[in-house]
């Protein structure tokens, strides 16, 4: 049997290294690389025809703007988002597209200005949604299991969010609105993974009495590890395939890949050790109280 809980310092250190590097990158760069959904900017969509060469289109765009993010939509539409794209630059890019891709004047489908206030409203609503979700999950787990399980699960969720944000900070990936949706999805998925392990711990505690929380947790994690890894692997294969073959949803798929992988890691290597620490601390307090009561008895 693998002694997962006994090596908690290793698991915590691995996560801390990633998070600290991510925080360092954010401090060095002055924050995350927010896209126009948060900072505001210009969104332009062109119809360049089926099977157009995206790399060639990207090369043309990069001649005019350095901060642009581009996507392929429905195999024929090409989307550009940039905080510094002017109308003159759009016209120059469009003229180049006409020459390179042999498109007409109607190839420019839309050109929109996105205000930063939309991103702020989206962020505020996402934070409120996360807080409500955390409170509801904590109440549910406290009633269904016990409060310590809920607290350990929430710590694991914060870990998953921090890891995902850190990866974006380390690689300077643009953060747009799909990132928020992906984070909310990861929270639900990670919680489900942790509950499976906690449910096994609760069942084992009924049948394995006079055993330390550490031993119960080790046995439970070993019993559910194969299930967690298989489920996560199946999910990741599907999302990676979507990321590769459906470019239009990559902004949503990539944080899902990072978050779900982090969730599988945290449910095994973070949530369970945290629960053991909380349980051991509670048992020690209980013993101290009993010792005090015994000493006070005449």
From TrEMBL:
Membrane topology designation: Multi-pass membrane protein
Membrane-spanning ranges: 12-31, 126-143, 150-171, 228-246, 252-278
GO molecular function annotations of the record: protein-transporting ATPase activity
Keyword Cell wall biogenesis/degradation found: no
Gene Ontology terms: biological process: intracellular protein transmembrane transport; protein targeting; protein transport by the Sec complex
Residues in the signal sequence: none
Presence of the UniProt keyword Transport in the record: yes
InterPro entries in the record: SecD/SecF_arch_bac (IPR022813), SecD/SecF_bac (IPR022645), SecD/SecF_CS (IPR022646), SecD_SecF_C (IPR048634), SecD_SecF_C_bact (IPR055344), SecF_bac (IPR005665)
Gene3D superfamilies in the record: Multidrug efflux transporter AcrB transmembrane domain (1.20.1640.10)
Main location, first listed in the record: membrane
GO cellular component: plasma membrane
Family affiliation: In the C-terminal section; belongs to the SecD/SecF family. SecF subfamily.
NCBIfam families: 2A0604s01, transloc_SecF
The protein's name in its UniProt record: Protein-export membrane protein SecF
Organism for this UniProt entry: Clostridium thermobutyricum
């Amino acid at each position: 049997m693998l002694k997962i809980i006994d090596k908690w310092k290793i698991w915590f250190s691995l996560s801390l290294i990633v998070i600290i590097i991510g925080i360092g990158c954010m401090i060095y760069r002055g924050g995350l690389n927010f896209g126009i959904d948060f900072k505001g900017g210009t969104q332009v969509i062109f119809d360049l025809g089926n099977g157009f060469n995206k790399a060639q289109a990207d090369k043309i765009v990069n001649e005019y703007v350095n901060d642009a993010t581009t996507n392929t939509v429905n195999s024929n539409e090409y989307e550009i988002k940039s905080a510094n794209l002017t109308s003159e630059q759009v016209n120059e890019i469009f003229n180049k597209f006409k020459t390179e891709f042999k498109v007409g004047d109607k190839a420019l489908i839309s050109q929109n200005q996105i205000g930063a206030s939309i991103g702020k409203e989206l962020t505020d609503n996402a934070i409120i949604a996360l807080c409500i979700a955390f409170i509801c999950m904590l109440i549910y787990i406290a009633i269904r299991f016990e409060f310590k399980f809920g607290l350990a699960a929430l710590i694991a969720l914060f870990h998953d969010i921090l890891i995902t944000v850190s990866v974006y900070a380390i690689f300077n990936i643009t953060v747009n609105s799909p990132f928020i949706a992906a984070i909310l999805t990861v929270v639900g998925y990670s919680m489900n993974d942790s509950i499976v392990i906690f449910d096994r711990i609760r069942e084992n505690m009924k049948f394995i009495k006079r055993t330390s929380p550490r031993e119960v947790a080790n046995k439970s994690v070993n019993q559910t590890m194969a299930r967690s890894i298989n489920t996560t692997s199946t999910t990741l294969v599907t999302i990676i395939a979507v990321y590769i073959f459906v470019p239009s949803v990559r902004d949503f798929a990539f944080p899902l890949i990072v978050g779900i992988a982090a969730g599988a890691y945290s449910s095994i290597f973070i949530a369970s050790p945290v629960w053991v620490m909380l349980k051991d601390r509670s048992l020690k307090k209980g013993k101290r109280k009993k010792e005090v009561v015994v000493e006070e008895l005449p």
